[in-house]
Structures are given as structure tokens and as C-alpha cells.
Design brief:
Strand order of the largest sheet: 11-12-13-14-15-16-17-18-19-20-21-22
Number of helices: 2
Structural class: mainly beta
Radius of gyration: 24 Å
CATH architecture of the largest domain: Beta Barrel
Number of strands: 22
Oligomer: single chain
Order of helices and strands: HEEEEEEEEEEEEEEEEEEEEEHE
Largest sheet: 12 strands, antiparallel, barrel
Helix content: under 10%
Shape: globular
Distance between the termini: 22 Å
């Protein structure tokens, strides 16, 4: 819980930074003219900080013209990045963009991201906090998650941390609790992407700590590197994927209480269950967003980890998150996660005295709902 509190304090302190004056002008198709400071465009939402209403969110499809005296970085649907200033234009649905060596007229719907070049640390920072729960007669789950991302013209660094606590109850015929069992899982993931041209391959560096009592994972540290690419990066959709290698150090409390091998420390001495491994990783992330009266975002992510040092073992995880805006900056959030570990003929099993022909399969999942705050 302390890392989550530290990240929240970082978010609060960064939000106190000061950016350029509120002189940018945004004109909508309905004729409204709004003056303020452009904080950025992402996922089809233009954020504008005004004198009278703080930061407001404007659907990009409703914007007819944009004018500013300051410099910006633009990301186009073609994955091209431009650096320059936004000038005046008489054409709705387009902008005049002046870079160092040329003057372009760009259709607004071809622009997927806008970021002020002279922005402060807080302007480059995006973050969200989720608080989810699940209440059933036999299951109670609580989940909290914090996501932070920092992006500049050549790289993107993201951090995600979540904790899930679950209590499973066995009820008697009267509905009273006969006995209960609690499990917990947690994950802290860091990723740094660096590119020369975002439309081509980018380099990715990852570091992860995760634990899951339901999967007998007492703690695993993974560090890896690889190559990735944004296959789709356009209004309404973003799809990226990466692959590489990573090393892991894990500690498991595997147990076979029915038939423990003679003389083995199986499930008795957790320190004997420490294992080093080399894995490949394949990851994909897909974001789809639409706008109506409320914004709707759907995020799908998945990772597959085939082991290279314990042949036959495969780990995988997947998550689906649906966010529906119920009021400004607040979303109703539905999160589904699943995790799989084949544990097939792993080196860890050898260390603990498990026969080589024993396949231990583990699967865990959760489904929670709650609120998400994403300013």
C-alpha cells in the first residue's frame, strides 16, 4: 500500500506546476469560441484549461478550428510526428501547422495526439486511480489500481500498480459463514519505450514484481528488453505489440499434501522454492474508444511468457477494462483479469522433488467493478 500512497503524492505535487498563458483559441462547429490553454489531445479528447472552468474536455470531432501562439508536437494517424506551431485558418476541420522548414494544412481527424512542447512535468504526466469491488454471498473482493504514464517526443515511461484482496466463504444451510479463506495478489509493472521514429520499431525495457497466493506465487521479479511497434495509432483505436526476452527470479510455495515425495521439502521450506529462469515475452495492447453522451473506452491487454529454461512451461495473463464516463473525470469501471501458469516440468518442481511427469496447472481470475478517476 505504501508504493500506491507515494505515487498519489507524486501526482498531487506534479499537478501544481505552471504552464503557458491561457491564450489558445478553440472554435467548435456549433460556433462556440473557447479561449484557454491547450493541455493536450489524447484518445479523442482535447483538454483545455480555461480561466473560468479549470480544465474542460472537448470531443475532438466537435472541434472546427484551433489557433495558438505556442509550439506543439503532433502525432498523426500515419504515425508521423510534427513539431511546430498552429496558425490561423478559415477552413473548418483543418489546421495550419508551421514547422521549421514547411507550412502544412492538416485535417483535424488525422491528428491523434497533441502535446505542448514547452509543457511542464505535470503536462507530460497522465494518471488514473481505480477502486473496484465484488460482493457476492460467497466471495468478496477489493481491488485498487494506480496507473501513471509520462511521455515526451522520444520515449514513454509507464507504471502500474494494483492490489487485490479476496475472501471466499463457505456458507451453511442457514446462510451463515461456516469457514472462510482469504487470498491476495499484487503487481507492480514498469515499462520504458524509446523510439527514433514511433511509426517504426521502438525499444522496450520492462521490470515487474508480482505475487499471487492462489497460484502459489510468493513473489516473482522479472526484468526484460525487446522490440515493439504501434500497428494502429489513429482516432478511435490504438494497437501495439512487443516481443523480447526476460529473466525471472521467483519463489513459490508449491504443495502436494496428498502425495508429497519422500524426504522432499515440498511446501515446507519456501526458501528452497527459489528459481531463476529465462523467458520470452509477447505482449499486446489494444485501446478502442467511442463518444456519445458519455465517453466509452475499452482496453484489452495480454502477455504470454514461454519459458526457455524450463521447456514446456507457459505463463500468460490477460485483462479487459471497460470505462464509461458518468461525470467529468469519473468513470464507471469494469475490470476482468485472468492469469495462467502451466508449471509443466519446471525447474522449480525439480528443486522441490516433484516427479518430472507431474504437470501442475494453475488458473486464477477476477471480475470487479467500481469507480475510476482519470483527470
Amino acid at each position: 500500500m505504501r508504493p500506491l500512497i507515494a505515487m498519489c503524492l507524486l501526482i498531487f505535487n506534479a499537478s501544481l506546476a505552471i504552464a503557458h498563458p491561457k491564450t489558445d483559441v478553440v472554435m467548435l462547429y456549433n460556433g462556440d469560441r473557447i479561449t484557454g490553454e491547450i493541455k493536450g489531445l489524447n484518445s479523442g479528447i482535447l483538454r483545455l484549461n480555461t480561466e473560468y472552468a479549470d480544465t474542460i474536455n472537448i470531443e475532438w470531432r466537435n472541434v472546427a478550428q484551433v489557433t495558438s501562439d505556442y509550439s506543439f508536437e503532433l502525432l498523426l494517424a500515419s504515425s508521423e510526428r510534427l513539431f511546430g506551431s498552429i496558425g490561423e485558418t478559415d477552413t473548418n476541420g483543418a489546421m495550419t501547422f508551421k514547422s521549421i522548414d514547411k507550412l502544412d494544412t492538416i485535417e483535424l481527424m488525422a491528428v491523434t495526439q497533441i502535446r505542448p512542447i514547452e509543457e511542464t512535468f505535470s503536462d507530460r504526466l497522465s494518471y488514473s486511480i481505480n477502486a473496484n469491488f465484488q460482493l457476492e454471498p460467497e466471495l468478496r473482493s477489493n481491488r485498487i489500481q494506480v496507473d501513471i504514464a509520462y511521455e515526451d517526443k522520444a520515449s514513454k515511461t509507464s507504471a502500474s500498480a494494483w492490489v487485490l484482496e479476496s475472501v471466499t466463504r463457505q456458507l451453511d444451510d442457514t446462510g451463515d459463514t461456516e469457514n472462510s479463506e482469504s487470498t491476495s495478489s499484487a503487481k507492480v509493472a514498469l515499462e520504458h519505450q524509446r523510439w527514433t521514429d514511433r511509426g517504426e520499431l521502438y525499444r522496450t525495457f520492462t521490470a515487474t514484481y508480482d505475487m499471487n497466493e492462489a497460484l502459489q506465487n510468493d513473489g516473482r521479479i522479472s526484468v526484460g528488453a525487446g522490440l515493439g511497434r504501434y500497428f494502429i495509432d489513429q482516432p478511435g483505436m490504438r494497437l501495439s505489440g512487443a516481443a523480447g526476452l526476460q529473466g525471472t527470479l521467483e519463489q513459490a510455495s508449491l504443495q502436494d499434501t496428498d502425495n508429497p515425495p519422500d524426504g522432499s521439502p515440498f511446501g515446507v521450506q519456501p526458501e528452497d522454492g527459489t528459481d531463476k529462469a529465462l523467458e520470452a515475452f509477447i505482449q499486446t495492447n489494444w485501446l478502442v474508444y467511442e463518444f456519445g453522451n458519455q465517453d466509452l473506452d475499452v482496453t484489452l491487454g495480454g502477455n504470454v511468457y514461454p519459458s526457455l529454461s524450463s521447456w514446456g512451461r507457459i505463463r500468460a495473463n490477460a485483462n479487459v477494462q471497460l470505462s464509461w464516463e458518468v461525470m467529468s473525470d469519473f468513470y464507471w469501471n469494469l475490470t476482468a483479469t485472468a492469469e495462467y501458469d502451466s508449471d509443466s516440468d519446471s525447474a522449480l518442481g525439480d528443486d522441490l522433488g516433484i516427479p518430472k511427469d507431474t504437470n501442475v496447472t494453475h488458473f486464477d481470475y477476477s471480475l470487479t467493478m467500481g469507480l475510476k478517476w482519470a483527470p
